[in-house]
Specification:
By secondary structure, the protein is of the alpha/beta class. The chain is built from 15 helices and 21 strands. The chain has helices spanning 3-15, 19-61, 81-92, 111-123, 139-148, 168-178, 209-214, 226-231, 243-252, 274-282, 285-297, 345-356, 374-379, 396-406, 426-434, and strands at 70-76, 99-105, 127-131, 154-157, 163-164, 184-192, 198-202, 222-225, 258-269, 302-306, 313-317, 325-330, 335-338, 341-344, 362-368, 385-389, 411-414, 446-447, 453-455, 458-459, 466-467. Strands 1, 2, 3, 4, 5, 6, 7, 8 and 9 form a nine-stranded mixed beta sheet that branches. It has a four-stranded parallel beta sheet with strand order 16-15-12-17, with helices on one face.
């Protein structure tokens, strides 16, 4: 191409403002192969790093002081062979080698699938295929059948189609080497779609007895010490549908050594949503019955009710006596526009407490800076309300402590003045928990005026504490 033609072409493109666009396109195209190459090279580096990490685990596993066998129990009821194969291969890929996988068939599988399972068992002595045709469709009975066929020191259920991360059992055994007294261990999990990609993580809290009574949040990957499973009688068939939850409840009442491995090590197959898996344990009448029996066995003065969301249920503790609750409200007497109206925050807060609270034995202490308007004082004039002046320079903590020193109650409740009571049982519900000996503080779910969640607890991820589900929809 001649220099004159190049000059003419550039002038033409500049005239129609196309030169910059063309040059950008050419630069993008020239970078694309390099970008794809860099991404491919990064994937290969990640893959090699992952392989090296897993190989290091295989080597380290041989040096563990604790090297007991872990037994996994899988019920094969109307299961697709592809699902079973994915589960088996995930177990066979474990970097910790001392495991057993017992697959119990209930007569619902085609002969070709049973034959394929038997070939796996013939190839790997750690895999055992048993038949429990008398247990057809009964999950608890199938679990007991598989339990009798294994010998591992720890046992756990693994659903057909679910998979373990290669390092799952290694991480469990590493914890057992650090915490040899552990009796129950659970991990985080996620849901895997048909494309094999993770689409939802379930990151669980560490052990919380109160949370556990509301539902089996420990989920699908839990391992239990066999001696305790045997001691409590295994899976109770009358708790079908909640048999693992019932087993776990009977174990945790005998042991406080419950541990959480905070890593996603269990991949739940798509279609079994987190809510669906939880509902299997908690929404059924069997789950509610299991919790009620737990409360009775442990002489806990409480009842178990169905929850509002159809998944969890609710334990209502009996309040001992009629303790005086001191509601301490620090205030600066501000007004704020909420919606289309101006609101006196303290008046709105106090009147909502007085008008809606069903629990009657409480006092309200409004800790002001001494500048409340007369109309504000008149609006909250009530025998249960005291206005106390804090005359020092602003210090929120000192202001709260000042209020506490003037309080007469057995229980203190600190309340911001920009809140409004929306449920009559709010104070009763909090008192039910604050009276429990093992509980030092209780919080409540808070909503923004538009119904979005403002506060539903605090988590501490990397970067510091934050409100969980902040600005999520109400339900």
């Amino acid at each position: 191409m001649s220099p004159q033609l190049i000059t003419t072409t550039r002038a033409y493109l500049r005239q129609f403002k196309l030169l910059r666009t063309l040059m950008h396109a050419l630069r993008t195209l020239s970078r694309a192969p390099r970008t794809r190459l860099a991404a491919y090279q990064q994937r290969m580096r990640d893959r090699h790093r992952r392989r090296a990490e897993l190989q290091q685990q295989r080597s380290a596993a041989t040096r563990f002081q604790y090297q007991q066998v872990l037994s996994l129990l899988t019920a094969a009821h109307n299961s697709d062979f592809g699902e079973l194969r994915s589960t088996i291969e995930s177990v066979r890929s474990q970097t910790y080698p001392k495991w057993q996988l017992c697959i119990v068939c209930d007569g619902s599988l085609p002969p070709a699938v049973v034959a394929a399972l038997n070939r796996y068992a013939a190839k790997d002595a750690r895999i055992k295929v048993t038949h429990g045709t008398e247990c057809s469709g009964k999950s608890a009975a199938l679990a007991n059948h598989a339990l009798r066929s294994t010998s591992g020191e720890f046992v756990g259920l693994l659903a057909a189609g679910d998979q373990l991360a290669p390092e799952a059992l290694y991480a469990v055994v590493m914890l057992l080497n650090q915490q040899p007294a552990a009796d129950m261990i659970y991990t985080d999990e996620d849901e895997v779609g048909a494309d094999g990609m993770s689409c939802r993580r379930v990151l669980k809290p560490d052990w919380s007895p109160e949370h556990f009574l509301a539902g089996m949040y420990t989920g699908s990957m839990s391992l239990y010490r066999r001696a305790l499973v045997t001691e409590v009688g295994g899976f109770r068939e009358e708790m079908e549908g909640a048999h693992e939850y019932d087993l776990a409840l009977r174990i945790v009442e005998r042991s406080k050594h419950i541990h959480h491995v905070a890593r996603v090590l269990h991949h739940r197959r798509g279609g079994r949503s987190a809510a669906g898996a939880a509902a299997q344990f908690t929404a059924s009448g069997a789950a509610q019955r299991a919790v009620s029996e737990y409360l009775h066995r442990n002489r806990i003065a409480a009842i178990c009710e169905a929850g509002v969301n159809g998944v969890q249920h609710r334990v209502r503790y009996r309040i001992a006596g009629q303790p005086l609750v001191s509601i301490i409200i620090p205030t600066a007497g501000y007004r704020r526009v909420v919606g289309e109206r101006e609101v006196d925050l303290l008046v709105n807060c106090v009147q909502s407490v007085l008008g809606k609270t069903q629990y009657h034995n409480y006092e309200i202490l409004c800790i002001s800076d001494g500048d409340l308007q007369q109309e504000t004082k008149q609006a909250i004039n009530d025998a249960r309300v005291s206005i106390i002046t804090f005359s020092k320079p602003f210090n929120f903590a000192e202001k709260i402590n000042f209020g506490a020193r003037h309080a007469r109650g057995e229980q203190f409740l600190f309340l911001n003045d920009d809140t409004e009571v929306i449920s009559g049982e709010w104070l009763t519900a909090m008192l039910e928990f604050s009276q429990q000996q093992a509980i030092g503080a209780v919080g409540a779910k808070l909503y923004f005026p538009d119904g979005a969640i403002q506060h539903a607890g605090v988590v501490i991820p990397e970067g510091g504490p934050c409100h969980i589900f902040y600005e999520y929809p109400k339900e």
